[in-house]
Amino acid sequence: MPDKRTEHPREVLLDKVVAWFMQHGVLDTSMRTLAAGVGTSNRMLNYHFGSREQLLTAVIERVCEAERQALERFVDEASDPMEAGARYWSHIADTAEVFAPLFYELSSHAMYRKPYAETLRTVLTDAWLSGFTQAFERITTPDRAARLARLCLAMGRGVLFDMALTGDRAAADAAIKDFTELVRREVDHS
């Protein structure tokens, strides 16, 4: 059965826009520059998205939904939250070269409270935290699970940021492995 998303011209165009932004960044890219970069016209971008802000909203929603689904899948497939976290880290690290710069650039838009980035603010605080919390609730109290989820999310973001700057995947993987072992010992001893 064909993927319904790719059957619709707007969704096909959005896929191209996300890929272009992952390669080139958002910065102050105009709709005309973007249109030329993805092989369409400014008119078609405006037709499908309305404005640059609405286009950025669609990009954020697409990227965040894909990551939320990946996290849910890893949590559902693993009974051990540390295993789910390790698998999710591998997924993020594997895509970091193209994903991380876009993720952090759009995160800064959310920090500046750009209206089109409001979805990202929600995903960064609610969706990912709830996924990690759900995983930890399998082995500890809800309150403690929420604290561990926030700690793990913050650590993962920091290591991802470091890896995006340095390109040192081995050091990032080692840091995540050490942190995971620390969390496992903390959970086991309480």
List keywords for this structure.
mainly alpha; 2 domains; 9 helices
List the helices and strands and how they pair.
Layout lengths: L3 H4 L1 H16 L6 H8 L3 H8 L2 H26 L3 H31 L6 H19 L5 H25 L2 H20 L2
Helix pairs in contact: 3-4, 4-5, 5-6, 5-7, 6-7, 6-8, 6-9, 7-8, 8-9
GO molecular function, one term: DNA binding
Protein name: TetR family transcriptional regulator
Keywords: DNA-binding
Radius of gyration: 18 Å
Give the CATH architecture of the largest domain. Orthogonal Bundle
Q: What is the count of DSSP helices, taking H or I runs of 4+ residues?
A: 9
Helicity level, as a percent range? over 70%
Mean pLDDT: 89
Structural class of the helices, strands and pairings? mainly alpha
C-alpha termini separation: 49 Å
CATH superfamily of the largest domain: Tetracycline Repressor, domain 2
C-alpha geometry: elongated
By CATH, the topology of the largest domain is Tetracycline Repressor, domain 2
Strand residue content: under 5%
Largest beta-sheet details: none
Q: What's the CATH C level of the largest domain?
A: Mainly Alpha
Oligomer: single chain
